[in-house]
Write a structure and sequence with these properties.
By secondary structure, the protein is mainly alpha-helical. It folds into two domains: 245 residues, no CATH class; 111 residues, no CATH class. Helices cover 64% and strands 0% of the residues. α5 packs across α6, α10 packs parallel to α12 and α11 packs antiparallel against α12. The longest helix is centred in the last third of the chain and has 28 residues. The model has no long low-confidence stretch (mean pLDDT 92).
Length: 379
């Protein structure tokens, strides 16, 4: 076996081991029921559907409810034509928004073959596959960009992914799709890049930054007079994902009568950096509260400072637009800094939101020859 392949496989093994450690910890205190990872509360409307089809389904305290509930619903009702999509609409979390990033739920639906009892296992299986594929692809990409193949550990050691796999959320498959897309782009496999970019857009809307950022880079290179073979294929590969997401949004509008972000955008987005300033203040207030609040506040202040500083430094470096990853980081980083306190105050949410930009950060901060000019490293 070639050393580079052995390194990539080792990164995948480390990623899988870390993910399983978290999963086993959660399962060990929940009777080893995979449904515990969904984090569905007994007060959720969809809980009655889950319990009806799986009497052993584990339901958690209302305050422990989390987003895996919505991916479970999508896996049960992938195109919002059945019963499940009608049971996840409430005052805060509306079904159109949740269905706006349905990719992970679709994969779980396929993996479960439409069987209700198999959905929790399918969500976990798809997530673990994302961890393994993401770490492997990141290792190969890192090596081809002039770094060490151990760059795949950026996926393995990501706190956001380690948490996501214990709560059935989409970050593992989002990172896998992104890594595969960038690797295919690097290798000039435009068709494969198109498929992976489209999957990424449908898994997580912020990943629109990847095809849009790549398109910006190609246009910049063209304006700079660079010779770009197969420019049409490149731009087409970038366009399909956003168009597919737009078509899906049109479909959702026909089902629900509203756009996925018509209400939620005001809840999650604000002026750049305003949400982070607000989060710092809220976190600082928590440090002086009761024991539980103080623990959250202390960790949040530190995470906001370190992660915010790292992302800001990355934005400054990326602003020079000297590599094909810079526009991606700029767009994604600015989006992260435009989140309000709902998305960044609490550690579990913050580490999820920054999973992709933190994985790309090393390549933006310390470049290698493989990142210069055309993505094939020539010229």
């Amino acid at each position: 076996m070639k050393p580079e392949r052995r390194t990539a496989l080792t990164c995948s093994a480390v990623a899988l081991g870390i993910a399983l450690a978290g999963v086993l910890a959660v399962l060990s205190v929940n009777g080893w029921h995979l449904s515990a990872l969904v984090r569905m509360a007994s007060t959720d409307q969809i809980a009655s559907l889950a319990a009806r089809d799986d009497p052993g389904f584990v339901l958690v305290n209302t305050q422990a409810h989390y987003d895996g509930t919505y991916f479970y619903a999508i896996a049960r009702d992938p195109f919002a034509t059945g019963e499940a999509h009608q049971l996840i609409d409430n005052v805060v979390d509306r079904a159109p928004y949740r269905y706006g990033h349905a990719g992970y739920g679709w994969l779980a639906w396929l993996a479960s073959a439409g069987r209700a009892k198999a959905v929790p296992g399918a969500l976990l299986g798809v997530g673990l596959a994302g961890v393994v594929v993401g770490a492997y692809a990141a290792s190969v990409l890192s090596r081809e960009l002039g770094w060490s193949g151990w760059g795949g550990l950026a996926v393995a050691l990501s706190p956001g992914i380690a948490f996501a796999i214990t709560a059935d959320t989409s970050e593992p498959v989002a990172v896998a799709a992104t890594a595969l897309a960038l690797l295919a782009w690097r290798r000039r496999h435009w068709s494969l890049a198109c498929v992976a970019l489209t999957a990424a857009c449908l898994i997580k809307e912020p990943l629109l930054a990847v095809p849009v950022g790549l398109a910006v880079w190609e246009l910049l290179q063209w304006l700079r007079g660079e010779e770009l073979p197969q420019l049409r294929q490149r731009l087409l590969a970038c366009a399909v994902g956003p168009l597919a997401l737009g078509a899906w949004f049109l479909y959702l509008h026909s089902i629900f009568g509203i756009w996925p972000f018509s209400r939620e955008s005001n809840d999650f987005l604000t002026f750049p950096f305003a949400g982070w300033v607000d989060s710092f203040r809220r976190a600082a207030r928590l440090t002086g509260g009761a024991f539980e609040s103080a623990q959250i506040g202390n960790v949040s202040v530190a995470l906001l400072a370190v992660i915010g500083g790292a992302l800001l430094f990355g934005l400054i470096r990326a602003a020079r637009l000297r590599s094909w990853l810079d526009p991606i980081f700029l767009l994604y980083g600015l989006l992260i800094f435009s989140l309000n306190w709902y998305g960044v105050l609490y550690p579990k949410d913050l580490i999820r939101e920054v999973t992709v930009p933190l994985a790309v950060l090393p390549a933006v901060v310390a470049r290698r020859p493989g990142l210069r000019r055309d993505p094939d490293g020539q010229g």
